[in-house]
Amino acid sequence: MKISVIIPVYNAGKYLEKCLNSVVAQTYSLWEIIAINDGSRDNSWEILCQYAEKDKRIKIDTKENEGPGQTRNRALDKASGDIIVFLDADDYIEPNYFELLVKIIIEENADVVFIDVIQESPDGKVIKHEKMSNFSKRSKKTILGCQMTGYMPWGGWRKAVLRSLIDEQHLRYTDRPAGEEAIYSFELLRHSKKMSFIKQDLYHYINHPGSQSKLPNDSTTLNDMRLHLEKLGMRNEYADCLNAFAFTTLILWLLDAAKIYPIKRCLKEFQNKVGDFERDYGWNVGSQYLRIEVKLLLPIVRLRFLAPVVLAAKFVNR
Questions:
Q1: Which one of 11, 46, 261, 317 counts the least CB within 10 Å of its CB?
Q2: Rounded CA gap, 299 and 291, in Å?
């Protein structure tokens, strides 16, 4: 089976060689890299050209900046492999990743495979281990709901996918600057016939201060998901997932607002937000899709004990 490694590249010159070297060093050799330079202003394109000249399995292209979603879509259009693996240009992978991936796909007939992740700071210090494999015993809907809320972290690079599943469902990323993967992941998991997990840390995610994942939260992704479910006529079926996503978004909004507003204003704004949540979504919230700290807040917010929640949010580092 051939693996297509999709790498969107934007101003990643400082890390790009380590990323590319980690693919070249794989113990499984039937792969191609599709690296798209997304309008970088540093030396990323020059590095890509050097590597493509040395190894014909490395295919490159360059374009004006469009963002990560559209860049991945362009790479998907060019990919020729049986398996799609996403890799960010400042991250790197363990040398046995592809070998283990192909093995589990063949042995378990999987079309989606999750991998465990190590989050690291730019200087190489381990921040935390993300054990995606902790979800391996959960039902398909629970996994889907946990992905929707972020309890099971998003990120295309946290899972490998059979190209046939992507093609059958005509899946692509949106052009949103953040949350571009939400509907792609929902449809991917909804149509998956077999999800598997590799219980081994294979992906090194470099967590940069101020990175995309740390941008202030808004409700755009939530609204996109709600409209998507309504269009499919599936909002009632996934109401507990969607409402859990909405409640998570509400709490993330509070954590951001608490850093900006004084307590009195934050409390007033939060009261209005809770009212909007109750009107638009309601309290049919699947608590199994919530992180423990969010789950603990659910009954407190529902009973409108909001002042202590706002006060506590002032002291949380997000």
A1: 317
A2: 14
